[in-house]
Amino acid sequence: MLLDLLILLVTIWLTHFLIGEMRKPKNFPNGPIFYPIIGNLLTVAKLRKETGFLIRAVMKIAERYSNTKDVIGLKIGKDLVVFTMTTKALKEVYTCSDFDGRPFGPFYETRTWNKRRGIIFTDQDFFQAQHRFIVRQLKEFGFARKGMLEICENEAEFCVNDFRKLIENHGGTSATVNMPNILSMYILNTLWQFLAGIRYDVDNQEMRYLQGILSDLMKSIDMKGALFSHFPFLQYIAPEASGYKDYVRCHKNIHAFMRKEVERHKRNFNPSDEPRDLIEAYLKVLHVGDESGKAHKSFSELQLLGICLDMFIAGSETTNNASNFMMLYLTRNPHVQIRAREEIDRVIGRNRLPKLSDRPNLPYCEAIVHESLRSFMKMACGVPHRALKDTKLCGFDIPKDTMIISSFMPPSMDTKNFKNPHKFDPENFLDVNGNVVVPENFIPFALGKRRCIGEVLARTNLFLLCTTLLQNFYIEIPDGHDIPSEEPIDSMTPNVRDYEAMIVLRQ
Ligand code: HEM
Fold this sequence. Notes:
By secondary structure, the protein is α+β, with helices and mostly antiparallel strands. Helix content is 50%, strand content 8%.
């Protein structure tokens, strides 16, 4: 009798639970039915395997289920997730402050000592105070003063000199190299000099090791998180299989590196000295407060480590992968190199290296940079946002705490804006007179309060590396090699496949 009652109660509870798990919020964006516990995880995983890309998987689902082309509503584990599928929806997310939050969960907090720290995954007052500080530092150390620009120009020069040495070591005229990530150290150096005032040699083992960890980390996660973020219990029952253990290990290694750097700064710190990098400026705020005489409560040493971690991840992975696309397409398109080189020779010549101030006179080279960013972003998603309150998106109801992920494919592939969206073609950004035209809807660095803070640095690096390399080298497909594939790899941000190219010294 008692057992029967127990079975009945468990059955009622289970039925109630299962119905609750499958129920969709009222007027939620359309999408497949939610299965209990897993939601749409299996559908997304299966289509992702078939199509090779998260965003292609979501597009396939949208084709089948959506009653609008703007947004699609899914549930992954415990999380309601809305994907934007049009430029209109993307712009609405980035310009409406209701969507300025960042999601909660172990994926976002494990990386910063189980607290909400850093810049990328914090929000509201905490984020605003820290964001203000970093943006001011970028302006003060950065491009308002000459310092940062000089750092970028110097790194491009280091790159050319290292390539020359490499060619010399290969017999004097050319060297065949593995191309992906060939510029990563120079890109990282510009960022790291801003953060910590240090530059590393191209073969510095410690930094190479750190970059290796970072690239493994990026391959194992994506913009909607990792398995353990949607199913938090997996971090306890399947830490290995859910990716939790690797995630923690990678972050521990990166933390140890950042902590060493902060400790070094602390040993040499004198509050009355003018800060020379971001870490010193932050330590100064911790010691003597900001210009108002006291520091916002969000400032702490742990938060400084969180900022270093986030800037390192956000700044190196993105620009590095965008530069990988730039190098891939230059390798695949000798005619683009010829035209760029002709422009560089005409405007700058061969007796000095390109500078950022040459950019207005090098429209074709600038168009290559825009086109490389477009090629990189066409398969990319933004960092997840969170609805800070119950709100509306494209006419649908979005409950508080829903995760919103924006696809950058629509603004990057718009046939109204680009003559040739499916091809790598710098002409996509040039008018009939050869002047650069950037469509208003082309927004690789996003918009609004959560837009990228590293845009100027990223654009500067891409332009200087592109022009400096083309001025000094030809980039060719080695004899007997196939044309490298342009099919990207799905990762935290898209990346190129492995390939080799020959760098030939210009005489
Ligand atoms: C080609 C290079 C880059 C691209 C395409 C890019 C793109 C973006 C995009 C689209 C966002 C918005 C994220 C969102 O959806 O909320 C973003 C945010 C961010 N970016 Fe970049 N980025 C690049 C380089 C950099 C660099 C060099 C830095 C560091 C100096 C950086 C630091 C950040 C940070 C800290 C955020 C988070 C801002 C926030 O949470 O409000 N990025 N980036």
